[in-house]
SRPBCC family protein
Amino acid sequence: MTIIESAVEVNKPVAEVYTFLSNMNNHQRLMPENIYNWESTEDEARFTIQNMAKLAIAITNRVENQELTATPTEKAPFEIELKWTVAENGAGTIAKLIISADLNMMMKMLASGPLQKLVDHQTERLQEILG
């Protein structure tokens, strides 16, 4: 299993960050430009990653003010899990995005860089949006 993660500090309470992340409609604002055909509800999102794959994911586990887990609802090119964790850090919140992907060596070489860029972009956007 390949683990790709990125963490950021947000100057908002844990509950506010968790509430934002728990609505998949908000995740479109976190995505880079190479994500298109976005459709979402509060619990599910469908989108296309340019030159890679179409994904449909849904929140499958919620631990209020701690973590959210999303997994594919349709066949994905490889097994993948996206998990956001939030934890209090003084006056703010540490938000971490962790992608666990079952990649063979070839896929790992091709996908690791773009997946790392994706998690870094999402955590940076979260910090910009929520301050």
